[in-house]
Amino acid sequence: MIARVIVVLLVSLVHSSLGLAQAQQPNKVARVGFLSVGFPPLSTPHQRMHEAFYQGLREVGYTEGKNLVIEFRSANGNFKRFPRLAAELVSSKVDLIVAPTTPAMRAAKQATAKIPIVMLSAADPVTEGIVDSLARPGGNITGVISGAPALSGKMLEVLIDAVPRVTRVGVLRYPRTIGSFSSLSLTEIENAARALRVHLKILEVRSLDEFEKTFIATTKDRTGGLVVLPDSLFSTNQKRIAEMSIKSRLPAIFWQTEFADVGGLLAYGPSLPELFRRMGVLRGKILKGAKPAELPVEQPIKYELVVNLSTAKQIGVTIPQSLLFRADKVIK
Questions:
Q1: pLDDT in tens, 60-85
Q2: Which of 1, 28, 129, 219 makes the best surface tag, with the fewest CB within 10 Å?
Q3: How many CB atoms within 10 Å of residue 25?
Q4: pLDDT, position 19
């Protein structure tokens, strides 16, 4: 009897010791791949976005250097490198891949159907076949979208509020598949143009080399304003496009507030830092066991209006006080 009690006690002691040892073991360090377009993770003006991304991770318990390692892969501005970089991350067996641009998202999807992917897309992920639906993605991808067709109509309205006498506006876009937000945005902006009695000229740009001749053409045909629709090609060349609009003395509005930071006259669109924060939260949830297939793709809920008065002065535009009152940020 005594021997049996001793055995029971020893077994209990062993189980207790194992439990204590397991409790004292450090949490597993998560390894996450990040497909970057080409900007250093904390470079200006992208610092705010990455800081927001880390903030979202901290909100769900992940801190780099403690229980998190991020492996960056940079395309250095060349989207054609994404497939190779995505394959590298898959081979290194990361726990999750972050794809903050549409080209990166497509490359990651092509590289793996198993490793979870958190995206930030300017395209419609449903019509492009990336996810089954926004409510239930269905595969290994979820995330947030930065584009919305209705945004283009609102951008045109803000531009006309800034320069009321403009009657001819160029629309800069990168032609994609029929179902993308870029295509759907055309319908919205055409509807807004009819209501505002503005004539639109669609300007399609397929490469960096076409930017300059496009801006020269707008100057020759007396285009009075420009709406730049969402696309990764444009977002990775913000400063160049902003400088061309100034050189052409062309009032332009962009969908990312960062364009105004580098010289764009107007910017109206979703808050990118907020989208990056929500990407961080989603990523943390997945690392804790949530399935991407069941995490809804999130849409923008916070929009910002930025006005660059320094640029307005350079191109000879006087921004109405009523618009300045509405702005979330005014750059002087």
A1: 888 888 999 999 998 887 889 999 99
A2: 1
A3: 8
A4: 41
- CA–CA separation, 330 vs 69, rounded Å? 37
Which of these, 220, 221, 177, lies nearest to 200 by C-alpha position?
Answer: 221
- Within a domain: 22: no
- What confidence category does residue 183 fall into, taking pLDDT thresholds of 50, 70 and 90? low
Confidence of residue 23 (pLDDT cuts 50, 70, 90): very low
Burial (CB < 10 A; 0-12, 13-18, 19+), residue 196, is middle
Residue 170's DSSP bridge partners are: 201, 226
Instruction: Tell how many helices (H) and how many strands (E) occur in the chain.
Output: 13, 12
pLDDT value at position 50? 74
pLDDT at 148: 75
Tokens of residue 330, six digits: 């005014």
**Residues 221 and 139 placed together within one structural domain of the fold:** no
* Cα dihedral value 287, 146, 35, 306, nearest 10: -120
Q: What is the pLDDT of residue 181?
A: 61
Find the CATH number of the domain harbouring 248. 3.40.50.2300
The string of DSSP letters for 34-86 reads EEESSS-TT-TTTHHHHHHHHHHHHHTT--BTTTEEEEEEE-TT-GGGHHHHH
CA–CA separation, 282 vs 279, rounded Å? Answer: 5
Please give the distance of CA 292 from its chain centroid, rounded to a whole number: 18
Q: How far apart are CA 25 and CA 49, in angstroms?
A: 33
The 252-254 sheet, strands edge to edge: 199-204, 168-173, 225-228, 252-254, 266-270, 303-308, 329-331
Tell me the mean pLDDT in the region 275-282: 90
Helix (H, G, I), strand (E, B) or coil at 139: coil
Q: Name the more confident of 38 and 124.
A: 124
Cα–Cα distances in angstroms (integers) from residue 43 to residues 7, 47, 102, 107, 329, in the given order: 63, 5, 21, 24, 21
Q: Which domain holds residue 99?
A: 30-146+271-302
